[in-house]
């Protein structure tokens, strides 16, 4: 559980650094799979963080205002 919490904090920090990240870029930066990134994004959304996703090749994740 501590590993998951640390990873969620790392993900939040990365989302604050840049306007938009692709799933593969986040996965590479965090040394996890893209599936883990998607799960972690879901957990952060459940906790109330406004994370937006744009689908497609040019899509990515970004932390919304709020």
From TrEMBL:
GO terms for molecular function: DNA binding; DNA-binding transcription factor activity. Residues 4-59 form the HTH deoR-type domain. It comes from the Bacteria. Keywords: DNA-binding, Transcription, Transcription regulation. The keyword DNA-binding applies. The keyword Acyltransferase does not apply. It holds the Pfam family HTH_11. InterPro entries: CBASS_pafABC_assoc_protein (IPR051534), DeoR_HTH (IPR001034), HTH_11 (IPR013196), Tscrpt_reg_HTH_DeoR_CS (IPR018356), WH-like_DNA-bd_sf (IPR036388), WH_DNA-bd_sf (IPR036390). This is DNA-binding transcriptional regulator.
């Amino acid at each position: 559980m501590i590993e998951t919490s640390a990873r969620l904090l790392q993900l939040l920090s990365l989302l604050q650094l840049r306007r938009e990240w692709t799933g593969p870029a986040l996965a590479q930066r965090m040394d996890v799979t893209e599936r883990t990134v998607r799960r972690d994004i879901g957990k952060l959304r459940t906790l109330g963080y406004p994370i937006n996703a744009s689908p497609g090749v040019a899509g990515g994740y970004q932390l919304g205002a709020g």
